[in-house]
Write a structure and sequence with these properties.
The structure is a homodimer.
Chain A lengths: L3 H8 L3 H9 L6 H14 L5 H7 L5 E5 L6 H16 L3 E5 L5 H13 L4 E4 L6 H9 L4 E4 L10 E4 L1 H14 L5 E5 L5 H16 L9 E3 L4 H13 L6 E4 L2 H13 L9 E6 L12 E4 L2 H17 L8 E2 L2 E3 L7 H7 L2
Parallel strand pairs in A: 1-2, 1-3, 3-4, 4-5, 5-11, 6-7, 6-8, 8-9, 9-10
Antiparallel strand pairs in A: 10-12
Chain A binds a DNA duplex through helix 2 and helix 4.
Chain lengths: 339, 339
DNA sequence: TTGTAGGCGTTATCAA
DNA sequence: TTGATAACGCCTACAA
């Protein structure tokens, strides 16, 4: 690889001059400039961006931590974030693949050691205190999909409680009263919030909260299936299931099908997150839309704001909405038709 | 951020000594070592990995170019590649999001300017010559899912023709003789190869190739749907569809459903790639498995081999296999049952 | 075992 | 407009 020095020698000028024509930081006489350009082309020279950054004491990169690369959720985030930052002249360093606290701390260290200019973090294993400390250490940071009171200007969330609420309200509106709820792991705040939305809606509708209709899953297909089986064993009456995410819905769907329940004929189903294949399931899954793109966009916005110390408008709490497809049956029309 | 210098001053030793205890490159007396470690902890110092690499005239990173981040295919590749390289002490710089030649050249430049130690490329817009030139310029490079004769030790492919063959053979074995084939865009070699596999199987079975049963799609759901409609308009007889990828299969499935064909009862369907949601479709899609993980693993292997100049065993042509699910009907049993 | 000094490739500062 | 030269933070001879 050709270096600045090579170019300067070939062009018969100083390195400084070459640097100037590259960055346009200063006027350079026309003929010298021409020589430099020629030399650059001849040598196929391109500046070493990392070292460039080093000289400016910024790296021109931002780090992002996600638990995994696969799956539609995180890849969407990365896609959007990467596109945005690229446009802004930054580049994104991804650290993925750890679901443990230790692993995620490793990720932080890794990115810090690469001197990223800012950090976007989607990690549930890191403690609040750790993240607060990180922010206090001076690096601009944005926390995705999680709320830490002490960092309220750094967290971007969706309103999970609202999501649970609109899902449940929709089922209620469709005439369902005995609604199963399969929750996510309840040590996670978003799982709790979604459950809370469910409870609130029931309460508002004057329906008592029935514990036997609720089971804890773990945001996976298997977990959803397990929880669904548990519910079925309880031998309770229900006409609808609110699954706290689409994977859970998927697991529940399979179990219900196995047990001979047809959806939505006998049991209605609502998911959460509206992941990519929700629309490809049979029946197409009605699901609470998680505004991933918007969240990603906002996070970039917020980082830029922090980097430039400008105030700008960012929504810290994004609003989910319901995507209605075919997995819920309207009990009212049904009663009329007497089917 | 604390620097080497800060640590050395606090510990009362030279920077060289600090460097030594960090890298363990040399024996350091116990007490000085202790001081250094203390200083490092007190300052929360972590080495600047980029500069570290710079001093060693390698970056410790490898670049990977993919057309997009979203979707199950590329995210799987990235996931595997990233995990592997991380274990090996490398880190991966991703450049994504361009389907144009210009954009992908940009990506190459970008990664080169970051002085990645090697390159993994999944890009169909880049010309053979360009890639050959790139390799000749000295950077270790691996080409994914594409074959360039001049770079036969740098390309990792699956045997697309074999894939087309096993899909078609399976349908033949199940008694289907009038098999529609929806191809990918025929300017792409993998699409052509899959079609060729289809043709070869038919020929081997003594069935004439019928152009009216073939339509070109573009590897998307919409393209698949469009091609399927085209076929239906031709009013030809068929009992099965071989879709050149799962998105095409998806599009075809929807059109067939719309038109009242039930699958697999009236029409059987085989996809290609076995992407994540194939198993969640209804009916669960029988599909040719694309060994993405294996391909990713091999690419890492190959890069490492090139980097260390060791010879190692890499498969340059991976073998697909058929994942049989529920979207194909056995016409033999059917005839007996007379259903 | 330890420190000094030079180098990695660039930008920024200061004279000329 | 130009060119030396210092600086960025680290590693690695070389010398002590």
């Amino acid at each position: 690889m050709a270096t600045l020095k090579d170019v300067s020698e070939l062009a018969g000028v100083s390195q400084a001059t070459v640097s100037r024509v590259i960055n346009g930081t200063n006027r350079v006489s026309h003929d010298k400039k021409l020589n430099v350009v020629k030399a650059i082309n001849k040598l196929g020279y391109r500046p070493h961006s990392i070292v460039q950054a080093q000289s400016c004491s910024r790296s021109g990169s931002v780090g992002i931590i996600v638990p995994e690369l696969g799956g539609p959720f995180y890849s969407t985030i990365l896609d959007v974030v990467d596109k945005q930052f690229r446009q802004l002249g930054y580049h994104v360093v991804v650290s993925a693949g750890s679901n443990t606290e230790e692993g995620q701390k490793e990720s932080v260290k890794f990115l810090l050691s690469r001197r990223v200019d800012a950090l976007i973090v989607h990690a549930h294993q890191l403690s609040d205190d750790y993240l607060i400390e990180l922010q206090d250490s001076g690096i601009p940071i944005v926390i995705l999909n999680r709320f830490i009171p002490e960092m309220n200007t750094s967290c971007i969330n969706i309103d999970n409680e609202l999501g649970g609420k609109i899902a449940t309200e929709y089922l209620l509106k469709m005439g369902h009263e005995n609604i199963v709820c399969i929750t996510g792991p309840l040590d996670k705040s978003d799982a709790r919030a979604r459950l809370q939305g469910y409870r609130n809606s029931l309460m508002a509708a004057g329906i008592a909260y029935d514990e036997t209709l609720v089971a804890e899953g773990d945001f996976t297909e298997q977990g959803g299936a397990r929880a669904m089986r548990k519910i079925l064993k309880r031998n309770v009456q229900f006409t609808a299931v609110f699954a706290s995410n689409d994977y859970i819905a998927l697991g529940a769907l399979e179990v219900l099908n196995e047990e001979g329940f047809s959806i939505p004929k006998q049991v209605s189903l609502v998911g959460f997150d509206d992941i990519h294949f929700a629309r490809y399931m049979t029946p197409k899954l009605t699901s609470v839309n998680f505004p991933i793109e918007q969240m990603s966009l906002e996070s970039v916005q917020l980082i830029i704001q922090k980097l430039s110390k400008n105030k700008s408008d960012v929504s810290f709490k994004l609003l989910p909405s319901l995507v209605i497809r075919q997995s819920v049956k309207d009990l009212h029309t049904t009663l009329n038709i007497n089917n």
